[in-house]
Amino acid sequence: MTTDRMAPNRLILPSAALALLNASDTAKRAGADDAQNAPAPANAVQRAAYFGLSYQRFGLLFDDRVNKELVDFENLRRLPNAPSWLQGFTNVRGAIIPVFDFNQVFAIQTDQAPKTLSRNYLLVIGKGSQAFALPLQEFPHKLSFTITEAQPDQDLAPARLRPFIRHCFRQGRPWFSIDHHAFLQDLKTQA
Q1: Is residue 57 one of the residues assigned to a domain?
Q2: CB 156 within 8 A of CB 58
Q3: In this structure, are residues 179 and 65 in contact, taking their beta carbons and an 8 Å threshold?
Q4: In a domain, 83, yes or no
Q5: What is the pLDDT of residues 99-117, one digit of tens each?
Q6: What is d(CA 58, CA 187) in angstroms, rounded to the nearest whole number?
């Protein structure tokens, strides 16, 4: 092929279409890498985007770039003699995902955590062996903070969460940015 543009409605071989797509993706990625690697102005403060889950007196922040998906809460398989905070496992498109109840993990009375959703949803966070699901009481919040907004309020977090806190921010309540991979590993070892 001598040109990058094809005539309208012209059929091409799948291998040629894949080659065009790969070339286009490579060019886009190179442009994005250049934009990301460009030096920021000295006085620029970068904001980090998060999605947050509310738990009564505090909220948990997860990096907005992490894989997440909202699915119907169905087909939960419980395990005998499992801790109360491990509700069981569910199947999401062939992947077996553990379902944790953070109200139980953090000893939050469920009668004090009103449900605001009309249906039962799970929020699946991560992918592959690093995926886990949480039942939702309300939809996640979209938040953003700068590192300069971080505050030393880790003592307001439940003791079980403190070792995994990266930053604490305030917006109506304390919001804790956590290392969810390390927290998940800790939960798995205790299950």
Answers
A1: yes
A2: yes
A3: no
A4: yes
A5: 999 888 888 876 554 566 6
A6: 20
172: phi > 0 → left, psi -120 to 50 → alpha, else beta; which? Answer: left
Domain containing residue 150: CATH number: 2.40.50.180
> Cβ(49)–Cβ(108) under 8 Å?
no
The three-state secondary structure class of 129 is helix
What ranges in 42-166 are assigned the alpha helix state H? 102-105
Query: According to the model, what pLDDT value does residue 23 have?
Result: 65
| Tens digit of each residue's pLDDT (9 = 90 or more) over 28-67 | 555 545 545 556 555 667 889 999 998 888 999 999 999 9
160 occurs within a structural domain: yes
Q: Amino acid letter at 175?
A: W
3-12: which pairs have CB atoms within 8 A and are 24 or more residues apart? Answer: none
Supply the pTM of this predicted model. 0.69
Domain count, the chain: 1
- Distance between CA 160 and CA 184 in Å, rounded? 12
